[in-house]
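dumping this here so i dont lose it
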């Protein structure tokens, strides 16, 4: 059972000019120049930035030891001076932190938490276990050279009281129809690796978003088939496919999805500019939205943040 009340949603406080964003590094190490450019981008947006000491540590393909990385995640949630948290980079390593996170502390200190790719692990678990609304959006290193659409989408999601609507320009309908549900998901590979663990995400009744990078079509097929056989997709409200960068033509990915879900009636559309491509729009996870597959739109029912 979730540490949060069964139907409780913890919507984080909205950020504004001068709000402080802390940087966590729960996954892989990163290039210092690219990191510094991303930090400058956050400051140009009007935020103060806290970089914990030791954040640049490296331990092979990880940004420090597991206790080191988990400590800074816990510390940033506990620090009253920090208003929101963004991750430095994806890569690999977030799932190794799951036994080391202080979930009760996080429940008591809900904050905006931003990332994608390997950070999907934390987005999923913090939403499922803590009831926290999280944000599938850019990491510090991807902000370094991010286009205006990516930056603007992030700013709107974490500073505005408006309902978010995201449309796939050039989207493709796989199954027509409309449905509503809590939005969840993230990186397909990462979610697949959570299947069979105590942190396996629960998708029933939800709108599932999926994206990936550099996965051959047969591997996408294998992961979807694996999750289908495991019962992960039972009673879904719908599916939205984002960027599948370096995974072959989008039509191929759509055909794989169409085959995998040929016996399902829920709506599915593809082409949302969210994920590893140049444009990476921000999606809140943990709140309801309506999926309109014919018009390739995901429309949230309310803002993802609240006033102080």
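and the seq i came up w/
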């Amino acid at each position: 059972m979730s540490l949060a009340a069964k139907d409780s949603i913890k919507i984080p406080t909205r950020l504004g000019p001068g709000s402080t964003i802390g940087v966590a590094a729960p996954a892989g190490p990163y290039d210092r120049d690219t990191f510094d450019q991303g930090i400058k981008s956050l400051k140009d947006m009007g935020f103060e930035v806290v970089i914990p000491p030791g954040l640049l540590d490296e331990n092979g393909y990880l940004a420090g030891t597991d206790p080191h990385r988990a400590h800074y995640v816990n510390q940033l949630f506990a620090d009253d001076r920090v208003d929101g948290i963004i991750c430095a980079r994806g890569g690999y390593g977030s799932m190794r932190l799951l036994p080391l996170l202080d979930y009760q502390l996080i429940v008591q200190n809900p904050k905006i938490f931003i990332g994608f790719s390997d950070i999907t692990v934390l987005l999923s678990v913090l939403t499922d276990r803590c009831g926290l609304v999280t944000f599938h959006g850019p990491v510090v290193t991807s902000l370094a050279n991010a286009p205006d659409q990516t930056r603007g989408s992030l700013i709107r999601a974490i500073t505005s009281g408006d309902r978010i609507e995201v449309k796939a320009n050039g989207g493709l309908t796989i199954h027509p129809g409309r449905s509503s549900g809590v939005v969840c998901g993230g990186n397909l590979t990462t979610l697949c690796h959570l299947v069979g663990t105590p942190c396996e995400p629960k998708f029933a009744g939800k709108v599932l978003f999926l994206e990936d990078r550099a996965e051959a079509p047969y591997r996408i097929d294998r992961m979807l088939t694996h999750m289908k056989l495991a019962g992960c997709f039972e009673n879904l409200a719908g599916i939205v496919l984002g960027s599948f960068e370096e995974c072959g033509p989008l039509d191929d990915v759509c055909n794989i999805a169409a085959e995998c879900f040929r016996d399902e009636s829920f709506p599915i559309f593809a082409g949302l500019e969210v994920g590893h491509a140049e444009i990476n729009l921000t999606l809140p996870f943990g709140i309801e939205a309506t999926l309109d597959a014919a018009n390739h739109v995901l429309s949230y029912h309310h803002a993802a943040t609240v006033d102080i």
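The first strand starts at residue 20 and ends at 24.
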